[in-house]
Amino acid sequence: MDQMKKKLAYFSLVTLVLTGCEPVVVNEVAVGEPAEVSTVTETTVSEENGAIKSSANVTVAEDAFTDIPQAIAVLTSATEQSEIAQALVWLGMQGEAAVEPLNAVLKDNSGQLSGKIYACRALGQIGSPASGALVEALSSDSGAVRINAAKQLGKIKPSSQAIVAALLKLVDHEDIQSRQHALKALTEIGPPAEDQATQRLIALLNDANESDIVRNEAKRALKSIAPRHTFKD
Fold first, then answer.
1. Same domain for 118 and 29?
2. CATH assignment of the domain containing 61
3. How would DSSP label each residue in 71-113?
4. pLDDT value at position 18?
5. Does residue 6 surpass a pLDDT of 80?
6. C-alpha–C-alpha distance, residues 48 and 160, integer Å
7. Could you report the per-residue pLDDT of 35-73, keeping only the tens digit for each?
8. Element (H, E) at 201
9. Mean of pLDDT values over 119-125
10. CATH code of residue 224
């Protein structure tokens, strides 16, 4: 009965998926006390491309960590993947208070790539208050950080003109994977990007010198952003 009286908050849990750089799936889980791990599967991050390679589901208590620095220390240095998953979810629960500490992880030139990628995912869990930090991350020297920041920006609802403008800038990056994921993020955003993105995407689609990868992603983005229009290859 006591447990029935406990206040439960629902937070997004990143379900880490086993497919290359495929988008992270977000599910809802109950968060309350006492914390219980429902199902935990060990997770790993590829240092080469930042891909999450397996999955984890956890239930996290509001007092699972004493403070944000402790959670970030676990996120960036723990070896037990179940601990990292709990830190990721808990940091998302902290909202705007966790944005600057996570942004510091992204700016730390001595930090490990895996920690930066988890920081991007935690910022994505926070949502709109973290959009500025994720936009900054699009300028990272690391392709994996750029890609993961773009993915998270595509998931933020509602989107914003600043997010769309930053993704359009990334579309012009020299790294084709960064360009591809910027376009995928615009596809995720959909119609809210129509006014800003349509003409640039049409130009990409009609550029015979552009790579097929970029043209195909531009076509997908246009179908999502301006579904009422018909576009030629």
1. yes
2. 1.25.10.10
3. HHHHHHH-S-HHHHHHHHHHHHHTGGGGHHHHHHHHH-TTS-H
4. 26
5. no
6. 31
7. 333 233 333 444 334 433 333 466 888 999 999 999 999
8. helix 194-206
9. 95
10. 1.25.10
